[in-house]
Write a structure and sequence with these properties.
The chain is an alpha/beta fold. It folds into three domains: 57 residues; 235 residues, Endonuclease Chain A (Endonuclease, Chain A, 2-Layer Sandwich), CATH 3.30.870.10; 165 residues, Endonuclease, Chain A (2-Layer Sandwich), CATH 3.30.870. It has 19 helices and 17 strands. The strands form three sheets. Strands 9-16-15-14-10-11-12-17 form an eight-stranded mixed sheet, with helices on both faces. It has a seven-stranded mixed sheet with strand order 1-8-6-5-2-3-4, with helices on both faces. It is globular and about 75 Å long. The two termini are 46 Å apart. The model has no long low-confidence stretch (mean pLDDT 85). It is a multi-pass membrane protein. This is Cardiolipin synthase A. Keywords: Cell membrane, Lipid biosynthesis, Lipid metabolism, Membrane, Phospholipid biosynthesis, Phospholipid metabolism, Repeat, Transferase, Transmembrane, Transmembrane helix. Its EC number is 2.7.8.-.
């Protein structure tokens, strides 16, 4: 009996150290930033059993086997279609503003196309009005409607969107709906799922979440994009999930979620359509390449001086593109930089870029929620406050709800709006989208919205912040240790 127990003991001991050695090797071989690698190694060695469990859930970027195979080749296939889009030379902007030029050059060389002109771009800052405009456009659709959202929560005005979509499908409009399986779990458990399928809508649960898959892929890689495409001409994108703001997360007692969306008419819809096409193929295996812009679009009288670019991230898309774009944007600022984000857990490079901007004389403001839906992220964010304040960055804490909008404005000329949070998950893991607009008129509109956010916020006082308790600082350091893993 003693021999048997000793064999079991030695077997478990050997298995444990083989796991530790294997994970250590994979951490060292994977080219991560040093802080992230060190966080993983310390977690595994200091709290090994918990660390090993966390690694298997969150340590590597897994997709399903079929999805990974498609993702590995999806962008090269897309480039073939982009070459056809390039033949529509009239839609491309040849020159950008000085502040936007570096970012648009980066996008051109890494994604294959220049910024696109002749778009009518509208900023929408009221969720209820945005939904009403979307419902109108859905009813007016003539050919096709494609949607992707992280969260669709039934109830209220979200049901009105569902009814409009069902009506469009029943009158012959080709409707496709892709929703993240984890974020939209309430939708898939509701009657709307089967009602939509019976109406002829293709409904897909992206990145299906189940306990049987937890060792096959990372469960926290999510489809976080928010996109609506109508007739290959009208596009919506931004931070808004398909939820009624009066009903969403009322039990959290943090007020309504405040979002920004962009509605665009014009040829940029074709470029955004290719992103949707890639997502659809990765999830279903079916190819649905969008149509090229038609001649009527090429001849429209929309603003030909502005330029719009779309940046996508996630498995299969150009690696580190979002991170590079954010760094390029911040370093392009000469006078003013305003950022809004609900989750502020930047990479070390982004943190230094923001601090450097302030130290070289740029007026830098960051607007974040005062109250938060995530305790982990709230405390992790606090770690960065001291360094930002010391560099001269103004930190505003929004008091009228959860500020969920993700926006960057540089010198009231270059605007970035999308689904990307300033945290590790958005930068490195999720399927995300950001729209880049080089247009002073649009920049002025975004500035007005951001300025209203500032008026509804309280400025974090550097002296008061420095007087926080010793135990608070210790707690912040603990979350700082975990921040690369969030």
């Amino acid at each position: 009996m003693n021999i048997f127990y000793n064999l079991i003991k030695y077997f478990l001991f050997l298995t444990y150290w083989l796991l530790i050695a294997n994970i250590t090797f994979r951490v060292l071989m994977k080219r991560r930033s040093i802080p992230v690698s060190m966080s993983w190694l310390l977690t595994i060695y200091i709290i090994p059993f918990i660390g090993i469990s966390i690694w298997f859930f969150f340590g590597e970027l897994y997709l399903g086997k079929r999805q990974k195979k498609i993702a590995n080749k999806i962008w090269s296939i897309s480039n073939q279609w982009l070459n056809e889009l390039k033949l529509c030379q009239h839609i491309f902007q040849k020159q950008n503003s000085e502040v936007a030029d570096s970012l648009f050059q980066l996008c051109k060389h890494r994604q294959g196309i220049s910024g696109i002109k002749s778009n009518k771009v509208e900023l929408l800052s009221n969720t209820k009005k945005t939904m009403q405009i979307l419902i109108r456009d859905i009813y007016l659709a003539r050919r096709n409607i494609e949607m992707v959202f992280y969260i669709w929560k039934p109830g209220g005005i979200a049901d009105d969107v569902a009814i409009a979509l069902i009506d469009s499908a029943q009158r012959g409009i080709h409707c496709r709906l892709m929703l993240d399986s984890a974020g939209s779990i309430e939708f898939f458990q509701s009657p709307w799922f089967n009602i939509m399928k019976k109406a002829g809508i293709q409904v897909v649960a992206a990145l299906k979440f189940s306990l049987s898959r937890i060792f096959l892929r990372r469960i926290d890689v999510r489809q976080h994009r928010k996109i609506v495409l109508i007739d290959n001409y009208i596009t919506y994108s931004g931070s808004m999930n398909l939820v009624d703001p009066d009903l969403f997360k009322k039990s959290s007692n943090i007020g309504q979620w405040i979002d920004l969306m962009i509605r665009i008419e014009g040829p940029i819809a074709s470029a955004i359509g290719i992103i949707y096409s890639c997502d659809w193929e990765i999830e279903t295996g079916c190819k649905i390449l969008p149509q090229l812009p038609n001649n009527n679009i090429l001849k429209n009288e929309f603003n030909k001086k502005s330029s719009v670019q779309v940046i996508a991230s996630g498995p299969g898309f150009p690696k580190n593109m979002i991170h590079q774009a954010l760094l390029t944007t911040i370093y392009s600022a000469k006078h003013e930089l305003i950022m809004t984000t609900p989750y502020l857990v930047p990479s070390e490079d982004l943190l230094q870029a923001i601090c450097t901007a302030a130290q070289r004389g740029v007026n830098v403001s960051i607007i974040i929620p005062l109250d938060h839906d995530s305790i982990l992220v709230k405390w992790a964010s606090r770690v960065f406050f001291s360094e930002l304040l010391e560099a001269g960055v103004k930190i505003y804490q929004f008091k009228k709800g959860l500020l969920h909008s993700k926006s960057i404005l540089v010198d009231q000329q270059l605007s970035l709006i999308g689904s990307v949070n300033l945290d590790m998950r958005s930068l490195w893991l999720n399927f995300e989208i950001t729209l880049v607009i080089d247009d002073s008129h649009f920049g002025n509109n975004l500035f007005a919205v951001q300025n209203q956010y500032i008026l509804d916020s309280q400025l974090l006082d550097k002296k008061i912040w420095s007087m926080r308790s010793y135990w608070t600082r210790i707690l912040e350091k603990i979350f700082y240790f975990l921040s690369p893993l969030l």
